[in-house]
Amino acid sequence: MFIRLAIALSLVTTAACSKDGGACDKAVDNTIRITKESFPDMPAPDRKDMLAKCEKQPAKAQQCAASAKDLEALMACGAGG
To answer: Per-residue DSSP letters for the chain?
Structure first.
């Protein structure tokens, strides 16, 4: 279960950001917050790695991840925003 979630979160994180560092900060912070709320026993992800992936992604995906209210909405960002 955790392996599937880790893969899914990796995809969401990869689709979560634009090249704007401030926008990526918001998207990554929100992704981490939602993950902790949904899976409190899951180890914390590597924020630095998430930010590096984020810098390669389109702004639309970043906005989606930054404004997601729950895991379902966050996962939808990785499915095309």
So the answer is: -HHHHHHHHHHHHHTS--S-HHHHHHHHHHHHHHHHHH-TTSPPP-HHHHHHHHTTS-HHHHHHHHH--SHHHHHHHHTT-
Each residue's pLDDT tens digit, 33-75: 999 999 999 998 899 999 999 888 888 888 999 999 999 999 9
CA 43 to chain centre: 15
**Whole-structure pTM over 0.85, yes or no?**
no
**28 contact partners, CB below 8 Å, separation of at least 6:** 13, 16, 17, 47, 50, 51, 54, 65
